[in-house]
């Protein structure tokens, strides 16, 4: 992505990258949990479980997409990515 064309700052980009990584991991290792990671002989599964723990509070990719594409009745354009914990709520007029 060419981030210079967006209004996203470093925090927003990091948030998107975490969500992307989480989505890829969940597709590659469906249902991977701590118990499986402790019992596996697969080093990659074990290491990925640590990444999953680190990202457990991350907003999922579908949540970020929903936030960025949700129609808002406002003359102002919605920012492409908002900081985690600072999402604006939809307020009907």
Automatic annotation (TrEMBL):
UniProt protein name: Uncharacterized protein
Source organism (scientific name): Sulfobacillus harzensis
